[in-house]
Amino acid sequence: MSFTYQAFKRRVKSNKGRFRSFLTRLEKKMPRGIDSLISNIDKEVWKEVDCLACANCCKTMTPTYTEKDIKRIAAHLDMTADEFKKKWLKKERSTGDWLNKSTPCQFLNLKDNKCSIYEVRPVDCAGFPHLPKKRMKDYMHVHKQNVEYCPATYKMVEKLMEKMKGNSE
């Protein structure tokens, strides 16, 4: 990562409002070619960010588990889906989503920030932080949230702001 996690948190604190305002403006008027631009920025971001140096997503957030995720992970752990749910998950009342009972994630090894079920991890984890989605507009609300949790999302927004500023001058 090009900066430490502590430096990331300081930068988030000073830039979060500006970044969210920028994303809100984009959401209201999505520029033509934004998805292609994000795809190019995505390649740059991953040259600078190392998820294993951070793992903040696994430490502070919980994925949403689909029924397929639950069955796949339970089988991997040699459990039934019901046993898996009872041991590790809770059902959110408002949405009915299956979430981890606690954070950090029970499958995160805090010594090396690696996932013990990486090969069978939830689809939500595999797609995180959802940077190069086909329609950026559909994920803008996710980026607004993730900008303060994920250095990759932060970097993506930072680079997008730089490139769009350069294009408008």
- The overall average pLDDT, rounded, is 90
Shape: globular
Determine the fraction of residues in helical runs and give it as a percent range: 55-70%
* Beta-strand content estimate: 5-15%
As for the number of domains, it is 2
- From the alpha-carbon coordinates, what is the Rg to the nearest angstrom? 17 Å
- Which blocks of ≥5 consecutive residues have pLDDT under 50? none
Attribute tags:
mainly alpha, two-stranded antiparallel sheet, 2 domains, 8 helices, 57% helix, globular, 169 residues, two-stranded antiparallel ribbon
Structure description:
The protein has two domains: 15-58 and 132-162, no CATH class; 64-127, no CATH class. The protein has eight helices and four strands, in the order αααααββββααα. The protein has helices at residues 5-28, 34-48, 56-60, 67-76, 81-88, 123-127, 136-146, 151-168; strands at residues 89-91, 98-100, 108-109, 114-115. It has a two-stranded antiparallel ribbon. The model has no long low-confidence stretch (mean pLDDT 90).
What is the gist of this entry?
The chain has helices at 5-28, 34-48, 56-60, 67-76, 81-88, 123-127, 136-146, 151-168, and strands at residues 89-91, 98-100, 108-109, 114-115.
SSE diagram, text form:
Blueprint: H1 5-28, H2 34-48, H3 56-60, H4 67-76, H5 81-88, E1 89-91, E2 98-100, E3 108-109, E4 114-115, H6 123-127, H7 136-146, H8 151-168
Antiparallel strand pairs: 1-2, 3-4
Helix pairs in contact: 1-7, 1-8, 2-8, 4-5
